[in-house]
């Protein structure tokens, strides 16, 4: 294929002229200029020798794409695309890999998550509890007082081969002096003795409403906190821990965005969150936007923070900002996912469904009426059909006075929604954003309600058949993982991360349909239809070149797919393996004891690591450390003796 490098290394050329060692200096060459923290071609960019899933029904397959001024210029056969591009176009050889539109997460808590990412040890995707505890012990050894070791969601006990969580005794043995906080879904948190001392929980500490501090026979806290069903006890306890200073939060958010880029994510809709006050807690993302250092497109929703003051919040905000304010990188999307606290049901399937209070409708109506009058789209968290039905009573009442059509409002979650309520949503012009929470909680749902009831949780096929806009996301980082490929696997296979088969074929999606829910379908939820989500001339040039062919790999390999090259508006925001030299450098994680500096984020499957090692040529990747090189972490990392340094993880294979 013309334009290829032929040397198995850099994968980028100027009519094939830039290859091998020349790629190492490419970012400094006049071919590429700087746009914030991303490398941006000064001329056109060509991607050739690709298997392109365009999601453009008029042009579904292609092998080449040209990009100009941040948008796709031409997509099709290579000869035609080359003819459309400038003669000096920069060429990237995809080497036969699958290229897809950049993934869009319609429900994630990325702004809050970014502020804390560098402090968190991620157990996302870790296959055994033994592995997880080895990571924990190593992090305890690195973490200075008075800092905590935190594992904040993104995993379930069912993913572990042992099918259990660590015991409190195991936690205390692993960390006798360093506070450890482990959040498991929204049902419980485990604290060691040092963490209990740090937060001040003792015999006289009362249980908060909706939560329980488990105690021993003498009345002393054991370290187990339970959401019954209100998760506020979990949030509020976590909030007592140390926070990163502003400079570190900037660094942390950049690393979290790059982690998402490494999985092919280019856009998200931020769903707000508890302890995420506007505008104070948006200062870091605002700074990154102003400095041109955002590598994700973020549309954000505003989440009310105080019960009984919800109407005041939205009235104040809607007097000063409006949906659409911002640009393609950062813009206000609307209200939610919390509109009023009395309408928030909780999704802990270990406990019975909570009944919403009788004042739900009277609290919700004035907020919805205000939003409809001021043409603010909204999203509303609702797990159960009963909650959805009562909310729809309010929406229909407001709709009689103020038509809701065209507002692109929607429900989040909707695991147990009925066909009747699906039809009511369709009649009002609403949508439903689904997340892969059942991939993490499906076993608990089956235990409580039975396998038959779990077969359509949520009933995605029925939603789509009714003509309701449906989009997909993760609800990361505190419940499910942020990894989009786990969600895509769940949509396609109907299985939990623990391997339980939940859904019959009728409620599973084919791979292309699932991918559409992660790309073009999600643009409805941010009012950006036609602007992105497909590889099509005129759309924003967001794309991901995949480590494995999503359309062809065995189903059990889907969760392990990564992006080897991610483009945002034609700018390289992530590269690895063949394309690692094209990615703009990140500063090393701050603080220096950050788990991100050693074990990174989502667990890397050994087969993916081995494949990347073969491509790189050093053959030194490993399942614990991934395939980064110790030298890339900076001079402060004591990696000169690889075997002794990395031996705390039980291996000495690090590439140096």
TrEMBL record:
Keywords from the named record: Hydrolase, Plasmid
Pfam families: Amidohydro_3 (PF07969)
Enzyme Commission number, as recorded: 3.5.-.-
Molecular function GO terms recorded: hydrolase activity, acting on carbon-nitrogen (but not peptide) bonds
Enzyme kind, highest EC tier: hydrolase
Protein name, as recorded: Amidohydrolase
Database matches in InterPro entries: Amidohydro_3, Metal-dep_hydrolase_composite, Metal_Hydrolase, YtcJ-like
Highest taxon in the source lineage: Bacteria
Keyword Hydrolase: yes
Amidohydrolase domain location: 91-574
């Amino acid at each position: 294929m013309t334009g290829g490098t032929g040397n198995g290394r850099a994968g980028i050329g100027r009519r094939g002229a830039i290859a091998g060692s020349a790629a190492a200096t490419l970012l400094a060459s006049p071919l590429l200029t700087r746009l914030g923290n991303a490398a941006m071609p000064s001329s056109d960019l060509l991607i050739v020798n690709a298997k392109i899933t365009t999601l453009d029904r008029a042009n579904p397959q292609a092998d080449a794409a040209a990009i100009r001024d941040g948008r796709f210029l031409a997509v099709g056969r290579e000869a035609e695309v080359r003819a459309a591009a400038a003669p000096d176009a920069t060429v990237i050889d995809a080497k036969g890999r699958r290229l897809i539109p950049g993934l869009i997460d319609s429900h994630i808590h990325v702004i809050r998550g970014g502020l804390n990412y560098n402090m968190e040890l991620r157990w996302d995707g870790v296959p055994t509890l033994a592995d997880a505890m080895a990571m924990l012990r190593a992090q305890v050894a690195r973490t200075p007082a008075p800092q905590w070791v935190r594992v904040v969601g993104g995993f379930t006990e069912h993913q572990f081969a042992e099918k259990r969580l660590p015991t409190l005794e195991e936690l205390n043995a692993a960390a006798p002096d360093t506070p450890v906080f482990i959040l498991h879904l929204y049902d419980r948190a485990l604290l060691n003795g040092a963490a209990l001392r740090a937060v001040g929980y003792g015999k006289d500490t009362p249980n908060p409403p909706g939560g329980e501090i488990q105690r021993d026979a003498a009345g002393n806290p054991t370290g187990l906190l339970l959401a019954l069903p209100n998760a506020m006890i979990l949030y509020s306890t976590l909030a007592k821990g140390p926070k990163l200073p502003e400079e570190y939060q900037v660094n942390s958010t950049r690393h979290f965005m790059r982690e998402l880029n490494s999985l092919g994510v280019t856009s998200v809709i931020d769903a707000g969150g508890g302890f995420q006050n506007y505008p104070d807690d948006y200062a870091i993302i605002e700074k990154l936007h102003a400095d041109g250092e955002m590598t994700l497109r973020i549309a954000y929703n505003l989440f009310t923070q105080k019960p009984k003051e919800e109407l005041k919040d939205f009235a104040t905000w809607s007097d000063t900002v409006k949906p659409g304010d911002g640009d393609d990188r950062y813009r206000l999307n609307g209200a939610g996912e919390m509109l009023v606290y009395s309408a928030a049901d909780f999704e802990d399937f270990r406990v019975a469904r909570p009944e919403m209070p009788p004042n739900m409708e009277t609290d919700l109506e004035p907020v919805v009426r205000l939003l409809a009058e001021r043409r603010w789209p909204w999203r509303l968290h609702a797990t159960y059909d009963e909650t959805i039905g009562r909310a729809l009573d309010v929406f229909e009442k407001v709709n009689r006075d103020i038509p809701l059509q065209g507002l692109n409002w929607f429900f989040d979650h909707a695991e147990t929604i009925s066909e009747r309520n699906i039809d009511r949503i369709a009649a009002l012009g609403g949508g439903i954003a689904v997340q892969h929470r059942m991939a993490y909680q499906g076993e608990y749902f089956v235990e409580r309600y039975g396998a038959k009831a779990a077969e359509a949780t949520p009933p995605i096929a029925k939603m789509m058949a009714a003509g309701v806009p449906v989009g997909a996301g993760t609800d990361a980082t505190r419940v499910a993982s942020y990894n989009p490929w786990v969600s895509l696997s769940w949509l396609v296979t109907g299985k939990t991360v623990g391997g339980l088969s939940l859904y019959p074929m009728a409620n599973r999606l084919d791979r292309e349909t699932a991918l559409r829910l992660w790309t073009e379908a999600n643009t409805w939820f941010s009012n950006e239809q036609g602007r992105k989500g497909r590889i099509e001339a005129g759309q924003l040039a967001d794309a991901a070149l995949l480590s494995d062919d999503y359309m062809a790999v065995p189903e059990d390999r889907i969760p392990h797919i990564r992006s080897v090259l991610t483009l945002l508006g034609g700018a390289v925001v992530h590269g690895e393996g063949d394309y690692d030299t094209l990615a703009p450098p990140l500063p090393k994680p701050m603080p220096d004891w950050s788990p991100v500096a050693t074990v990174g984020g989502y667990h890397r499957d050994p087969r993916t690591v081995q494949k990347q090692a073969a491509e790189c040529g050093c053959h030194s990747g490993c399942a614990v450390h991934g395939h980064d090189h110790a030298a890339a972490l900076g001079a402060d990392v004591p990696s000169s003796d690889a075997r002794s340094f990395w031996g705390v993880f039980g291996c000495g294979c690090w590439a140096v």
